[in-house]
Amino acid sequence: MRRVGICPPQVLLPEKQIDLSKWAVIACDQYTSQQDYWDKAADIVGGAPSALNLIFPEIYLERPDAAQRIERIHQAMASYLENGVLAAPRQGFIYIERQTAHAPLRRGLLAMIDLEKYDYNKGSTSPVRATEGTILSRIPPRQAVRRGAALELPHVMLLIDDPEHRVIEPLAAHKHELEVAYDTDLMLGGGHVTGFWVEGEEAYGRLADALEGLWQDIAAKCPEAPVLYAVGDGNHSLATAKACYEELKKALGEAALAHPARWAMVEINNVHDEGLTFGPINRVLFHTQPQERLAGLLARAKALGWQPDLTALAPEELWPAVCAADAAGEQALGVVADGVCGLIRLGNPGHPLEVGAIQQLLDETLQDGESLDYVHGIETTLTMGMQQGNMSFLLPAMDKHALFPAIEQAGALPRKTFSMGEADEKRFYLECRRITA
């Protein structure tokens, strides 16, 4: 299996008596401006054992009690390992079926990825490739959580470009032969998830052969920089795992190659899975002067020669107008700023994607006291943009079939270019793995 960069993890799951609907919690990088979501999650969990006690929701990253929160996380990990919350480890892949309010079925495979085959730096030609530019300043706060952690809980989702459905989909045809690993509803509209154990050398060999065949096909089409796995979700979390592993290599030398931290547990998904959709990641600017900022952004775009044109629209007209412009091959994005709602068309765009254009403008003009967040969902983006002191930007969705060609040809995309589904479709923490020797 290692020749294709994966191997079966030693999976730790909660003991049978643990309520998985309280245990499983959404990825930490979701709802980063929606405190009420995390408050509701905490209310649901109460005092029950939960992955909520083992993760650091990013909404709290800038809080003054960050160090104390990390200490509590590490203590909870030790407690769960010592006090019978987690069952004995079991080695195997897990075939995953996820149902959400937006898709009846999405298939995945829980595996470990070799961090020796991953490089998030610009210009990388590694088999495991970042899909977006990595913000190096985001890694140290996440390293503080991972350092000293006994456990890893995965929310990273890797994509493969498998149009013939050779790798993951055959497992679905034989799932009735597989033992169920877990089966639970997910909190706060997360839908349902079922996992099935995929074990044994015969099963491992079939997966390895399928991935090897896929890799050979990809290398034949793109010999200079083939990509086998592209990071769909959790780019900075995987980059943090890599950074921590590189630290370990400096400390341990060759011994680090056999350390559990060489690997990161991930879910692998086929970009051609019908249940996998790409949505936009919108922008919301907080603590700003919306009307002045809108005028300033339009002026800057004009100075860059992008020929911006703003057309006023009613809020309910905005998203259809963005979609219509995208379908017509125009570059356009929606904006909501203190009662002004409209479509900005770029007649001579300076970037091949709208997300690159608006991100460049925001990066160039971000002012002291302002903060920028990345938000899923049309209604959420509109609502936040209408609040006093905020402005928001609606972006079109990227065609998922264009992802791998774009990475192979141009490298990493602008950060937060696409979302794999809506916020409530993101991966939930459920499985664990030891990352200490």
From TrEMBL:
It comes from the Bacteria. This is DUF1015 domain-containing protein. It comes from Luoshenia tenuis. InterPro entries: UCP033563. Pfam families: DUF1015.
